[in-house]
Amino acid sequence: MKPITVIGVPLDLGAGRRGVDMGPSAIRYANLHEKLTKLGFDVEDIGNLSVPTLETYKVIDPNLKYLDEIVAVNEKLAETVSETVERGRFPLVLGGDHSIAIGTIAGVAKHHRKLGVIWFDAHGDLNTHETTPSGNIHGMSLAASLGYGHEELVNCGGYAPKVSPENVVIIGPRELDPGERKLIKELGIRVFTMHDIDRIGMARVMEEALKVVTNGTDGVHLSLDLDGLDPKDCPGVGTPVVGGITYRESHLAMEMLAEAKVLTSAEFVEVNPILDNGNKTAKVAVALVGSAFGEIVL
Ligand SMILES: NC(=[NH2+])NCCC[C@H](N)C(=O)O
Ligand SMILES: [Mn+2]
Ligand SMILES: [Mn+2]
Question: What pLDDT tens digit does each residue of the chain (298 aa) get?
Fold first, then answer.
């Protein structure tokens, strides 16, 4: 069992609604440390990266809101994650909005040049500054990791691209913008929509997804956006979409990941305590972390 390093990234500049900056605190408050310690892990929490406050900055480009600040945070995150991997530890990153995947993946893929990525999300996060409907960079992080979008996002960590399309799967999307659909088709990315989950079940979806991310790869990253789950279970997210993955299906997905013993890094993002109901979403995040790290009932 690899020792785990928890890294908090209280960034909300990439999201349209405030509050995800409190995600790392909410997840810690929901007893993340205790959960992992009880499972027998050596856990180190290095606290939060320092992140600029929205009030200090102005939007310069409406199609790339807070670009410079988001790039700076992600460069720092990439370094921190890379050092964590060098120290032989598993990076567990707490968001923050989903733009932090740019930095996490930049840090991890440096050491795993053939990284598989599981993108668990109601969205594709495959927009660029040319296709974005909102200008919010959290909707561009998977595209940037694949080498598409603004060069400063694409070149985070000093190299690009981080991952190739054949090693990526998206699980749970139910809201994709026209530019995202186009990119998915062009690149041939494997996507398991809610339709697929309804039709063949999460067990088969995960079997197929695991094949994709382990085929010829040297590591697997889980990027889990809590809005992938149904808003009934995870109301504390900034961009909720009805008809999501259930609590049970998400646990099954995490348990199957744990059984496969392939994960080399993970991030849990978009927890927004301001919009939550009694820290419910953070509690679900911690429960899912437990399953992803091997928690079983019997
Ligand atoms: N990480 C997220 N919650 N992303 C939501 C993105 C929503 C929309 N597709 C956009 O680009 O603005
Ligand atoms: Mn999302
Ligand atoms: Mn997302």
Answer: 899 999 999 999 999 999 999 999 999 999 999 999 999 999 999 999 999 999 999 999 999 999 999 999 999 999 999 999 999 999 999 999 999 999 999 999 999 999 999 999 999 999 999 999 999 999 999 999 999 999 999 999 999 999 999 999 999 999 999 999 999 999 999 999 999 999 999 999 999 999 999 999 999 999 999 999 999 999 999 999 999 999 999 999 999 999 999 999 999 999 999 999 999 999 999 999 999 999 999 9
Atom 11 of ligand 1, residue of closest alpha carbon? 139
d(CA 119, CA 124): 8
Name the residue at shortest CA distance from atom 8 of ligand 1: 139
Please give the structure tokens belonging to residue 38.
């009880």
Mutate-to-test residue for ligand 1 from 136, 267, 269, highest number of ligand atoms within 8 A of CB? 136
